[in-house]
Design a protein that fits this description.
By secondary structure, this protein is an alpha/beta fold. It is 35% helix and 21% strand. The strands form two sheets. Strands 3-2-1-11-12-9 form a six-stranded mixed beta sheet, covered by helices on one side. The longest helix is centred in the middle third of the chain and has 14 residues. Bound molecules: fe (ii) ion (FE2) (2 copies). One fe (ii) ion (FE2) binds next to loops. One fe (ii) ion binds next to α3.
């Protein structure tokens, strides 16, 4: 039984991660958990890995982590993601690569809850629709019997979905939410990185009390101007000509050809 800080989709944004960790420090958490996508999009992948290691965070792999270390290709990536991940591959330090190679795809904690990145069986699945949650609730029952709470990432939005037999209900997350032991839940703590969000540049995370099964969403401001400036200067942002070039390459010879630009 513990109070967990749950975060994910950091995407190499060390300003947002630092703000999130400072916010979590105010709650006195027992353990830090990360649902993947530590790297990608922004200029500080090594620093983000280092910060999580320093906190002894329990992490799982996201698709960006796997692509960044060459264990997954660019086939299901947007041009924007592919461009930043090619840059990430060129800069990622050997210690970060070794760490990311050792991170598991899933973690079960307290025999009570699961960490996954996308879907339970597909790291790149976007779980957004009721049918996705019904499908993944079935996978959860089969692959992780007895587990009824699944923290996930990838969709970058703070949301809680409750599955009861064949019914999926989204719960309002604007205050503490108590989870029932007899239902299945999919909880996304949001995205630490907000560089691709237009509405608000807030780093998001969640608190989870495994004793009372209570989830609480939090969000905190960070220096997004500094993040954006660094990313642009270091070549992590794609221009429209490169974007078009990738489109042409994908049409002509498929995404595998585009992949050859990375080491
Ligand atoms: Fe992500
Ligand atoms: Fe992802």
């Amino acid at each position: 039984m513990a109070i967990y800080g749950v975060l994910g989709d950091i995407h190499g944004n060390c300003e947002a991660l630092a703000a999130s960790l400072a916010g979590l420090d105010g709650f006195g958490i027992d353990r830090l958990l990360c649902v993947g996508d530590i790297i990608g999009y922004n200029a500080d992948p090594d620093e983000c890995v280092r910060m999580l290691r320093e906190r002894d965070a329990l992490c799982i792999s996201g698709n960006h982590d796997l692509i960044g270390i060459g264990q997954l290709g660019f086939e299901r990536c947007s041009n924007k993601a592919m461009h930043s991940l090619k840059r990430t591959r060129r800069t990622l330090g050997i210690e970060s690569v070794a760490y990311l190679r050792a991170v598991p795809s899933h973690r079960v904690l307290e025999e009570k809850f699961l960490l996954t990145h996308g879907g339970v069986r597909d790291v790149q699945q976007y779980m957004t629709r009721p049918r996705h949650f019904l499908e993944n609730a079935a996978y959860l029952r089969r692959d992780f019997p007895g587990i009824n709470i699944c923290f996930f990432g990838h969709t970058h939005e703070q949301r809680i979905f409750e599955v009861d037999e064949e019914r999926v209900v989204e719960l309002a997350g604007d205050g503490p939410v108590s989870l029932r032991p007899d239902r299945i839940y999919f909880v996304n703590p949001g995205s630490v990185d907000a560089s691709r969000k237009r509405a608000s540049k807030l780093a998001e995370y969640a608190l989870f009390d495994s004793d009372t099964l209570t989830v609480q969403f939090e969000a905190v401001a960070y220096d997004d101007v500094a993040t954006e400036h660094k990313a642009a200067m270091a070549g992590y942002r794609i221009d429209r000509w490169r974007d078009r070039l990738y489109d042409v390459q994908r049409r002509l010879v498929g995404p595998r050809h585009v992949e050859t630009g990375a080491p």
